[in-house]
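Before the break, one more example. Copy the sequence into your notebook; we will annotate it together after we see the structure.
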Amino acid sequence: MDIDKLIKIFYYFGIWSSLRLTSGFQISPMYVPMEGGTRLTLYGNFWNNFTDINVTICDDPCGNVTYNQSSIICTVRLLNATNNAKSCEVTLSWSTSQDNDNVTTSFQHETGDQKLIFLSPMAQFFQPDFGPLFGGTLLEVKGQHLNIGSRSRIIVAGNECDIIVDKFANNGSIKCSTRKNNKAACGHVEIYIDHFHQKLTNANFCYKPDPLITKIHPLASIQSGGTTVTLSGTNLDSIASSQLAIIFNYTNMNGNDAEQGNCSYQYNTADILCWTPKVHSFTEHHFKNYTVIETDLEIRMNSKKIIIGDEIPKRIRIFRDPHFDTISSKNSMLSKSTPTLSLKGRDIPKDINKADIKVMVGGQRCPVIKVEVDVLECDARDVIEQFIRDVTNQTSVTHVTNSTVGTTTPENVTPSLHPVDISRFKENESVPPYPSSTTTTPSLTQPPTQRSYMVTIEIGNYNRSLGQVTVSLDGSAAENFYFIAAIGAGASGFFIVLLLIATVMLLIKLKKSRLKKNQINSIRDLAEARLGKDLISFFSQRVFLFNIKNFRV
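Here is what the structure looks like once it is written out:
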């Protein structure tokens, strides 16, 4: 054999070896709509010098084949109506040839390990159903098998909606961001997945006029964040509240930085309420010579900036976190005459929303009435009233027993006897005494006159425990409390005594009635006994006389 021809054979054998897929090939995507149109990609190690590439899916050809050394791409056709299979094998075939030297090598039927799955997508609903004209609304369509195929499109009220690629999304939803629209209008939402198409006719998406912020209050926050900022303006209801954010843009030692807090539309006031973020990059070093730092402010809906009126300041002041002194025993007493709790400290932010400052005394809120840089005061009257109610409920009235009223033993009373028991009738038995009766004497248990409560303060995300405060009954309150308690105890005792006397009198009356009845029964028994004796004697004498007369005869 010619040596040159042998070298060429080995050369083409090398081509064949390179073309063979030693570890098979991978396909993407694995899930496609039954309507077809999916651009299917086969990944592997392919050689450039080959011809006649074919890809079949369930024995149906995959059209428009293109390829390079690392991938082969083709278009999946509509699943054959006569083919009931929804899981298909993907088969690759190819050939190589060299016409000049009449050397041809052909290889067929390389079947991949993965199968192509055909599914039927179905869109059910979408949210939200409105957004501003400038776009940026994050629209989510939910249903079944929506994250399949090679290309998806969503049309919102006639406008293209930019698909948001999320590799972690499940097949039950697909998201997009609306584009800018020129006029307020409503329209259907349509979804395309390759050759699959569905129009959701059960609801419309409406473009609404753009919002405009005309007031921001207060333009202040603290280092820990969590305080509220209220936004007022026009057309604020055009925005889905779950997509709003307040942004702090500032420069630190590492360059530009930003922090983001959440916002929510308030339907009852038609305002937007935002919670300021914690400024992580601000440390004591930044506040070394300042108690407040200003930073730029933005309100965004996803990637879109909401317009703030030209006359509105676009900077916000960030105060350093406050410091409060621990409560001392000298000024920690609260009562009805001194109901104000005073908390001393420094750097207390008085420009933030006062409703964001929460003072808790024993778990009950103490409304803030005064805020200064070095002192904060709250009204503790509700706490004091609750303490008085608790003390009143804890007051108990006990009863002291074993106070004997007396023992009654009736004299000269003949007990009841059985009608024929004459011998027992003659015995004069004493009547058992009445049970000893007892009365109850009320006794007032002295309640506590003071109690300690833990005081905590919360300003946004900042919270501290400041120690304990003592709540007490002052002189007038204590006297009134004991006077009322004594009246209550006395009335209770008097009622118990009356009830006891009435009970004893009723028992005596019942006993007398029973004894009287017993006496009558005893007299009747005696009469019956004597009458029976006389009758026996009378009849005995008659029988004796009758017998004598008969004997005489």
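DSSP finds four helices and 38 strands in the chain. Confidence is low (pLDDT under 50) at residues 6-19, 396-443, 543-553. Try to locate both features in your own notes.
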